[in-house]
Amino acid sequence: MSTLRLALIQMQSKADARDENVAKACRYIDEVADEKPDLIVLPEFFNHEYVFQYRDYAYIDCAEPQSGPTITAIREKAREHGTTICATIFEEQGPGLYFDTAFFVGPDGEIFGKYRKTHPAAVQSLEKIYFRGGIRFPVVLVNGFRVGVVICYDHCFPETARCATVNGAEVILGPFAAPRFPTWDELMITRAWENGVYMAPCNKVGLEGEWVFGGRSLVVDPFGEIVAQATDDGDDTIVAELDREQVYAARRRWPMLRDRRPEVYGPLTASDEVARGLLVAGTGTEDERFPELATSAAEQT
Fold first, then answer.
1. In this structure, are 133 and 244 located in the same domain?
2. Residue 222 lies in domain
3. Domain match, 180 and 231 both
4. Secondary structure class of 147 (helix, strand, coil)
5. Does the active-site annotation cover 299?
6. 3-state class (DSSP) for residue 175
7. What's the total number of domains in the chain?
8. Contact 210/17 with Cβ under 8 angstroms?
9. Is residue 117 annotated as part of the catalytic site, yes or no?
10. 44 among known catalytic residues
11. What is the pLDDT of residue 1?
12. Is 175 found in the same domain as 56?
């Protein structure tokens, strides 16, 4: 297929009300199903208040396995409406082992893919004390489109969207639980344009605990144009039709993928400062760390 009908469900979640939050998400799925979407996306941690703003390890009780009640309910809705749903939860893989995981559930109600957040956040939140990061950037097929995911804070690292793109993604979903920040639109536009993909961040909205989530879920095309956007002040649903020809045209017009030089990107994956060029081997004196500066100073004397 050359088109993909995409729906993003933006919503606020209540504290200590998992079942109520899941039921709310399911109602929104029922409503947007009238638009006949091929793919529906829910925000990060839609089934709970954003608990990672708190330092209390008791919140690990919010984690669920994929066989738990949240994903079970989503599987039932995907099967009922014959559509694909991307749902992101605090996943318990096993005792003491947790991830922030986006599940792809197909029209048959079966899980056929998952992505685990690569960069647990610890800037304002405390995600790193609750779950670990994933290591893969899978791409799945939805209605003939190659679809990847990066989650929330992952967007601040251009390598994540690029890895999904290099793995074949034409659409990159972005389940979010993010407060308002001034460069939201610009960040999504940049990620779409530099990779020649559709970007589709789907955010929480409104007050949860002490955090106000920013909403403004949107779809950006591969040329960096916003084609649909939700409000910033309440639950909302947006639907957009994606055209694969736009991906083809954008990558021909702006051939950054052609011009990549992965053979010279060693510093991105080097694991020590010497290899990354931050230090030269030796004592680490100023002259050793920055020999070009020492040479310049000598020439001036």
1. yes
2. 3-260
3. yes
4. strand
5. no
6. strand
7. 2
8. no
9. yes
10. yes
11. 64
12. yes
